[in-house]
Amino acid sequence: MRFMVIVKSDEKTDVAGAQPSAEELQEMGKFNEELVKAGVMLAGEGLLPSAQGFRIQYSGDTEARVVDGPFAESKELIAGFWILQVKDRAEVVEWMKRAPFREGEIEIRQIAEMEDFDHATPEIVEHEKKLREQAEAN
Amino acid sequence: MVGVTATADPRSAIDAVWRIESARLIAGLARMTRDVGLAEELAQDALVAALEQWPESGVPRNPGAWLMTTAKRRAVDTFRRNERYDRKLGEIGREQEFEEEPDFTAGLDDHIEDDLLRLVFTACHPVLSTEARVALTLKMIGGLQTHEIARAFLAKETAIAQRIVRAKKTLGDAKVPFEVPEGADRVARLSSVLEVIYLIFNEGYSATAGEDWMRPALCEEALRLGRILAGLMPKEPEVHGLVALMEIQVSRSAARVGPNGEPVLLLDQDRTKWNRLLIGRGLAALDLAESLTGGAFGVYAAQAAIAACHARARTGEETDWGRIAVLYEGLGTLNPSPVIELNRAVALSMAVGPEAGLEVVDKLTSEPALKSYHLLPSVRGDFLAKLGRLDEARAEFERAAEMTGNDRERTLLLNRAAECTP
């Protein structure tokens, strides 16, 4: 299953636009390399501060409005993300315990897998059951 | 309070640690003991110890080091009890690393990566049967438990357990060295490793869906193994070729089964359901394979390149069938097969026209390997129908319907036969 790990911004990274130190970058690089070499990292990116971002607001039939950053409430903003493919929730927890963060918070959301929900028809369930019975009988 | 603390299930936490650490643990122990079977047992002992202690003590801060230290202690105990192992104890005593606590970043150490690669090649050694290679690979590199492997392959746990025991004995009896082969041997052995990974992938992929997570999860497992191998052997084009093939194939998962569980053929699939992230990863892996060889393709990369032609096309009509026909021709040279030739015929008919396809297929009608292959008359019927030779087409569709073992497909073929009746 796939999870999106969302790294939240903080005052330091977003408002002040502070760059990560060389040491922090190196630690993160090492961690990313571990994730890649373990075959679990599908994607991962860091985002520029919200001062360089913008929002688009929709309201009814009026034209969509573009609002430039920076945005307040920096802890609600996203600083970066990973997409990880792992066996279960516990594996994401175990990986992210090893992430080089010392403060702040990350949010983890499971990515909807269409095939998980769309195709488990009674027919397929029955087919799988038969296969299993056969296997047990072997 | 809702959602403040996560309930920590110690068993699933231990399983997760095991999944992350076990391969490197076994690999490290195998280097020290020069005995893969023993290494695997020692690692399992450490897992048992973790299951006994961690629910009480909590998961240690560095679980990998804890497991390694525990396994080492078990090893020394075992050897002391058994004088036959004196030699091995001596070897372990000489191992400097054995005394040091390995830390998390040790994974970046070349040493451990070399060990892991040796473990992959040992688990996939040709002295073992294919089934044994698959089971050992899933157990020792994938970190799966015996019952999980049994569930994935719809087999009994005892049967898989026996298979693994026998495989370890075979490796021991054959005195298979714990090493990555070099020279000419390396190519053959690598192809055995890739074969095992692709077999695991297909086992999951051909089980199109199901209520059981384990079979589709085999695709994920194979991809993970492939990605690990690509990290360990970044200069081997076929490793990237295989990863590319698997990434692109799995990108279609959501589109390849209809609402009633029926398979949806590639050209009928809703391409908006294809996973763009996985396609992107597949195309990148293919580029890598191509750049390493200067454009020449091995068997897996050639198949990946064909899959890429489909992935790149926004619609079926936009598919570069000419390139696919050329790629099948190349694939047929690497690995001559009438099925590949049949696929080439289909690509040719799409690129040039049904006559060109028919010309190739006509040469295949006497092919013994395709004698009971229903797709041959089915494809031939399709070409004939397009050429307006309806009587012949109907006969081919009826023949194909008799040959297929799948009810749904039979209905489809009989419908096509009926359409050929003026």
From TrEMBL, chain A:
What protein name is recorded for this chain? YCII-related domain-containing protein
Q: Where is the YCII-related domain?
A: 1-114
Lineage: superkingdom: Bacteria
Record-stated family:
Belongs to the YciI family.
